[in-house]
Amino acid sequence: MAAPSSAQAEQIVAAARSGAAHEVLRLLDIVDPDTTSQDGWTPLLAASAEGQVEVVQLLLNAGADSSRLKDGRSAMQLAFQAGHQGVFRLLFKTAFQVLDSTLRPGYRERLPTSPKEAAQEDPDAAVESLKQVTRRLAEAGRLEARGVPFVSRVPLVPREVEERAREEAVRGAMRQIACISAPTRRGFRV
């Protein structure tokens, strides 16, 4: 794909911001989903900041990078700070699918396909998904440690201590995601 013109970059960012899904889809045929406007917005960041769930889904399906930042904030942080629960949940779920797929290459669970479906996601289920992923990461670490010579191996931590540390890590991650003032958390359970 050729580098987009400045006008095309501005066009797709504006379409994403306004929720013009058909226009975004049309532009994705000629513009990279991670193109950046002159003021530093990607289509995913703009759509997330404005709560455009359908456009966010289109962009994620097109391979948009959800780790890109605008003024030090990710798409997930922008959605959370603006109170866009559907977008936040979709990005949160996508982040854990990426983590999970690193543990099981080739695996990809179906993402919600509609704003209504995304809005029905349970934030408690997202926390449970985080716990499952961290358990898998810990197990993968234990499996790798079996191949390390004993002299260089770190002593195994009792499972209850490991579980407590994992719970604290989950809480810490959730606090970092939610590092905003209480008045801007419209509609979120913390």
UniProtKB/TrEMBL annotation:
Ranges of the ANK repeats in the UniProt entry: 39-71
SMART domains in UniProt: ANK
Keywords: ANK repeat
Keyword Acyltransferase among UniProt keywords: no
Domain of life: Eukaryota
Gene3D superfamilies from the UniProt entry: Ankyrin repeat-containing domain
Protein name as catalogued: Ank3 protein
Species in which this protein is naturally found: Symbiodinium natans
